[in-house]
Amino acid sequence: MSILKLEPIYKDKIWGGTGISNILHRHIHSNLVGESWDVHDDCLISLSENKFIDEINKFISCDIFPILVKIISAEEDLSIQVHPDDNYSQKYENYKYGKHETWYILDAPKNAELIVGLKNKIIDKQKVISFGDETENLEFNSTIDFNKLEYKRLPVSVGDVIDIPPGLVHAITKGVTLLEIQQNSDITYRIYDYDRGRDLHIEKAKNTIQNIEGKVIHGLSIDEDDNKLTYLVSNKHYSIVKIDVNEEYNDTKLNDFCIITCVGGTGNISMYLPLNLDESIYSKNSVELKMGDSVVVIGKYRITGKCSILKTFTEKEEFILPLLNEYTSDEINVKCSVKYHL
To answer: Which domains does the chain have, with CATH numbers?
Structure first.
């Protein structure tokens, strides 16, 4: 049983700046940082060194750590882009994962908007081949003029959640800082980049774009003791629940791994330690959580304090079963982002 907090990996970007250091009060020796990778492949190294790799292998295949958690802060607009799904990535990029990602807005200027989706209706110009619960767009109509695409702008504010599945055109805009939880893939097809001289990937984008609606995900809430659990996003790769902790939250339901990210307030997380069949305690060694902090947890845990956290995990049943006890399938599909059949 373990709580693992990694050193962030900071990435300079052409659109980067000082937002991460200013908003999260981190000491960063660069004025061009656009991304902080807070959960990344070094998890596997640390887990191996601490002999926890066998535990986590019970739940995921560890040739590539499946989830990447980033903080992105945009000093300038990011490129307008789209990502492939697993099938397209495996066939054309020789990589295991496509890229499904989910955003949580940490900071945003007044009247902020993100680019999420297209105004143009293009679905009738696609040849879509069913491929399980994903689609592979093998032949996109090559006559589409990307210069004439019109993009939807979605108003956002702090605390909003936006789900970005493969195929959804999107862009983060100037002044927005957000948490991004995603498949561990960096495959990106740029459609427009504000004439900054970087490569565009028009043909691959044509084969990847889908006419998907982008929206803010409000989720469905369940009260548990004095805490509120809001079920937000679930797909075949990960699920996300927001937990508003009021003094104390004990998670003893499962004995697997999850990622805990603090998105507001402060708290402390400690491990649940079984002493024998009838007795257990919580470790006195705790890890502090403040906004932007992420930890990988293997085992049962307790969080104390007043804070809001996002719990990311891979077991779909842990997401769906509590909801089905409280809500109908139609309510779940409307309020949550669920990318499989209930």
So the answer is: 7-206 (2.60.120.10), 220-338 (2.60.120.10)
